[in-house]
Design goal:
The chain is α/β, with parallel strands linked by helices. It is built from 8 helices and 14 strands.
């Protein structure tokens, strides 16, 4: 068994993941390193993309490609790598328990079960944890409820958590077919109803709910802001995927829509931002 890992700069991670998903539709493993994000593909020799394909696909975002042989007990070690994660709100009143299917339940927590064998993450990434923490705080402030839109839903961790925390209806959008397929399966496993649709945000926004979650890179967040209008913008926006150093540019992008920063949090150089505004105008 071979492990083929691609390392890229954090700001290029979403682009690199999108390109790799075409070469590895079965999914990739994500590891957050010091100054890089690593995506790993497993397979027998001859089954994996060659290094040239990876270099072309990842383009300027590439840091390095590392190939290594995996020991015979890799399946057990792979399970050890994917541990449960508990995310607790600032007030400590509520928590979300993210776990793979083989780990036990956590009584009293809102549970999200994600199979790490699928594409697009298990929820352990700092940006997902930051988004979950902000959603938990909205819940503890009594602001959970009503419709919610999840832009760049991936494996639907945030959409599933939102549904369990009380938002309804919940809609999730992603450009990647593999992400939507994984999200549909995860929604079924977690018994949460989500309207999941494939959508390229570069072609326009869907109808946005009063609450929007957007775990996207800073350039994509700016693109989302550029397409908002007075009639199609949220009153509450939870966004992550930006680096700490990109906070001001993201806040500035949404400021013309009356969305003002309420809270900013950081974890491992990533940022999570809560913005709030008045109810949008209705023509």
């Amino acid at each position: 068994m071979i492990r083929l890992a691609v390392r890229c700069r954090p700001e290029q991670a979403e682009f690199v993941l999108a390109e790799l998903s075409v070469l590895a539709p079965g999914g990739v493993e994500e590891v957050n390193g010091d100054g890089f994000v690593e995506y790993a593909i497993y397979g027998a020799e001859g089954e994996l993309p060659d290094v040239g394909e990876l270099e072309v696909a990842t383009g300027d975002g590439l840091v390095e490609v590392v190939s290594s042989e995996v020991a015979d007990d890799w399946a057990d070690r792979w399970r050890e790598f994917h541990r449960p994660v508990e995310v607790v709100g600032e007030e400590g009143e509520t928590s979300v328990w993210l776990r793979p299917p083989w780990e036990p339940e956590r009584p009293g927590a809102f549970e999200v079960v994600i199979d790490p064998g699928q594409a697009f993450g298990t929820g352990a990434h700092p940006t997902t944890r930051l988004s979950l923490g902000l959603l938990l705080d909205l819940h503890d402030r009594g602001l959970a409820g009503g419709a919610l839109t999840d832009l760049g839903t991936g494996s639907a961790v945030l959409a599933i958590a939102a549904g369990k925390l009380g938002w309804s209806p919940v809609a999730g959008y992603d450009h990647e077919v593999a992400a939507i397929e994984a999200a549909v399966e995860n929604a079924v496993v977690n018994s949460v109803e989500i309207d999941l649709q494939r959508l390229d945000l570069k072609q326009g926004l869907p109808d946005l709910a009063p609450t929007v979650v957007a775990n996207l890179t800073a350039p994509l967040l700016e693109m989302v802001a550029s397409q908002m209008s007075a009639e199609n913008r949220p009153t509450t926006l939870v966004c992550s995927g930006l680096l700490e150093t990109e906070r001001e540019r993201v806040e500035a992008a949404f400021a013309p829509h009356g969305l003002k920063p309420v809270e900013f949090r950081a974890l491992d150089n990533w940022g999570g931002l809560l913005l709030e505004g008045d109810s949008p105008e209705v023509s």
